Amino acid sequence: LFSSFSIQSSKGDILAQCNQTSCQSKEGFHMSHDQYLKGDLSLTITGVDYTKRAWYTCKCDGAEICDVSIQIESVNVHKLVHPGESLSMDVTVSEPVELNRAGDTKPNLGRLCEIRGREIQCVPEYEKRVSFSSSLQLKDLKESDSGVYTIQDTWNHEVIGIYTVVVGGKI
Question: Which InterPro entries does this chain map to (predicted)?
């Protein structure tokens, strides 16, 4: 068995460490000392959310043994809305995100908007119809707005949410 074992985040914070006598973990993380003594080096992350997305490095006696990336599965929502209504799409991360759209009749319409902090930039067709607080609002929907909207974290290139939207029809 190793004399010491630690797991640290990509920011360099040691989240959990064990030795022959005990294990210590930061809040939100847990390593069982009994399991460690049996050779089980599992780390439990409690309350997983987008802030826990990162690379984690396992070290034994100071030597790196593996890197693991934690990714969160994206939200997948189907919405049926009527013309003139608004669509609300949750943005659950603080990193910059972009809104992309693939339509029913047009393959990929590409990036519609980009959000950095509280600043939002959209293509002309959408700039007066989109607002942002903690969710992205697309107002005054038209039947031509039907399609699949994707919210993607632009730093990590991870899809945060997928919204399949039908305006005025059936899903």
Answer: Ig-like_fold
Structure-token pair, residue 48: 């997983």
Query: What are the pLDDT digits (tens) for 142-164?
Result: 999 999 999 998 887 888 899 99
Those residues with Cβ within 8 angstroms of residue 27's Cβ, 6 or more apart along the chain or in another chain: none
Structural domains for the chain: 4-70 (no CATH), 75-167 (2.60.40.10)
Q: What is residue 104's predicted lDDT score, i.e. its pLDDT?
A: 64
Query: What CA–CA distances, in Å, run from 90 to 6, 33, 69, 164?
Result: 35, 39, 23, 14
Q: Can you state the percent helix, strand and coil of the chain, rounding each to 5?
A: 10, 50, 40
- CA-CA distance, 30 to 43, in Å (whole number)? 6
Question: Which amino acid belongs to residue 96?
Answer: P
* Average pLDDT score over residue span 96-105: 82
Burial of 154 (0-12, 13-18, 19+ CB in 10 A): middle
Alpha helices in the chain (DSSP H): 33-37, 124-127
Residues 153/66, Cβ–Cβ less than 8 Å: no
pLDDT digits (tens, 9 = 90+) for 35-69: 988 988 888 888 777 777 777 888 887 788 877 87
